[in-house]
């Protein structure tokens, strides 16, 4: 059986390297790390270093590094982690000017070399970058998605599990909306082993968890001092890569194109979607309460503003 091909654009960077590592450990497919030509050696170094992990991981896949984007040809899935990360004191929106140029460049390469691939982006400000990539690359809405909800939900899950004193394995929860301070962690739908979280934790404790979830990315920027989260970001990307490659049809909150769902028209925004062999196969819609819809409307406005600012 021919192995799947996974490409990581921004592969010399922090998130890119870890995406490649986990994909190889899990034997999801062959991995190509691509970055700007000046980083060619770094992509090759990471590819070789991870290759030397594989005997101890019992994994048989091939890794390679390159500064030439033509190697993207034939990719089943491309994870785009190209872009500058935040430094302390910066908001994700502060990255707009520099990262939109990078996304323009990456979109042109993918349009030319791998227009049939499924593309998952992490570049911030996330929702605006995914919108721009979709428009500039010409890929269908089913083949373009942003990774944010998977990470925000993992953070929410981690904090809820710790607060409730239960296994993270049993917590199910959903964070919708834009990747930023207006994100909407839905406490009403959170459960631990099927038991509503609202029956286990007080309103105040849930409120504190929601605040921690919203602030988690910024807290990591403060602690890292020179960049932003990468282990958890990479792991969240892998959930999406795996669901696509194995046609698992997992329900993962992701920045997907909404055309009327939840009152969003023509924007990429965090909503629960089914990811399978067709890419983003469906957006799952359910009624929000008036209060939730109000929060969601704020996040729509914030993303609309970011998209306008991107100038695409
Ligand atoms: N084409 C390909 N790669 C590029 C380009 C480009 N035009 N421009 C920059 N890169 C590469 C950089 O050379 C670097 O290797 O993107 C990589 C980014 O890696 P890091 O600086 O380590 O950043 P990382 O922490 O991985 O975050 C990447 O994801 O979560 C977001 O906010 C974060 O926008 C940031 C992105």
List the helices and strands and how they pair.
Blueprint: E1 5-9, H1 14-25, E2 30-34, H2 40-51, H3 54-57, E3 63-66, E4 77-80, H4 96-113, E5 118-121, H5 126-137, E6 144-146, H6 149-164, E7 171-172, E8 175-176, E9 184-185, E10 191-192, E11 195-196, H7 203-224, H8 231-245, E12 250-259, E13 265-276, E14 279-283, H9 290-310
Helix pairs in contact: 1-2, 1-8, 4-5, 5-9, 6-7
Bound molecules: adenosine-5-diphosphoribose.
What is the compact description of this entry?
The chain is built from nine helices and 14 strands. The chain is of the alpha/beta class and 312 residues long.
Please characterize this protein's 3D structure.
With 312 residues, the chain is an alpha/beta fold. The chain has 2 domains: 5-146, NAD(P)-binding Rossmann-like Domain (Rossmann fold, 3-Layer(aba) Sandwich), CATH 3.40.50; 149-310, L-2-Hydroxyisocaproate Dehydrogenase, Chain A, domain 2. Helix content is 42%, strand content 20%. The chain has helices at residues 14-25, 40-51, 54-57, 96-113, 126-137, 149-164, 203-224, 231-245, 290-310, and strands at 5-9, 30-34, 63-66, 77-80, 118-121, 144-146, 171-172, 175-176, 184-185, 191-192, 195-196, 250-259, 265-276, 279-283. Strands 3-2-1-4-5-6 form a 6-stranded parallel β-sheet, sandwiched between helices. A hairpin with a 2-residue loop joins strand 13 (265-276) and strand 14. Helix 4 runs parallel beside helix 5 (126-137) and helix 5 (126-137) packs across helix 9. The radius of gyration is 19 Å and the shape is globular. The chain starts with a strand and ends with a helix. The model has no long low-confidence stretch (mean pLDDT 97).
């Amino acid at each position: 059986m021919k192995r799947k091909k996974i490409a990581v654009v921004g592969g010399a960077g922090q998130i890119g390297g870890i995406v490649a590592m986990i994909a190889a450990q899990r034997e999801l497919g062959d991995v190509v790390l691509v970055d700007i030509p000046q980083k060619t050696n770094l992509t090759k170094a990471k590819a070789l270093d991870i290759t030397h992990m594989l005997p101890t991981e019992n994994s048989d896949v091939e890794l390679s590094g390159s500064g030439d984007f033509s190697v993207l040809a034939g990719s089943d899935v491309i994870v785009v982690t190209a872009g500058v990360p935040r430094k302390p004191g910066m908001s994700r929106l502060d990255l707009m000017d520099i990262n939109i140029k990078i996304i323009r460049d990456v979109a042109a390469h993918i349009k030319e070399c791998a227009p049939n691939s499924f593309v998952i982006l992490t570049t911030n400000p996330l929702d605006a970058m995914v919108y721009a990539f979709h428009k500039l690359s010409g890929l269908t809405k089913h083949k373009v998605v942003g990774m944010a909800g998977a990470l925000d939900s993992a953070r929410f899950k981690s904090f809820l599990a710790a607060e409730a004193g239960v296994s993270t394995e049993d917590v199910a929860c959903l964070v919708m909306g834009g990747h930023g301070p207006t994100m909407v962690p839905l406490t009403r739908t959170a459960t631990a082993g099927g038991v509503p979280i609202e029956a286990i934790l007080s309103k105040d404790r849930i409120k504190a968890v929601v605040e921690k979830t919203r602030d988690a990315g910024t807290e990591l920027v403060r602690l890292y001092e020179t960049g932003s989260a990468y282990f958890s970001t990479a792991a969240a990307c892998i959930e999406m890569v795996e669901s696509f490659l194995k046609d698992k049809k997992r329900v993962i909150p992701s920045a997907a194109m909404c055309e009327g769902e939840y009152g969003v028209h023509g924007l990429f925004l965090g909503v629960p979607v089914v990811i399978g062999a067709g890419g983003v196969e469906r957006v799952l819609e359910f009624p929000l309460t008036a209060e939730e819809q109000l929060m969601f409307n704020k996040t729509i406005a914030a993303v609309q503003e970011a998209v306008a600012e991107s100038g695409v």
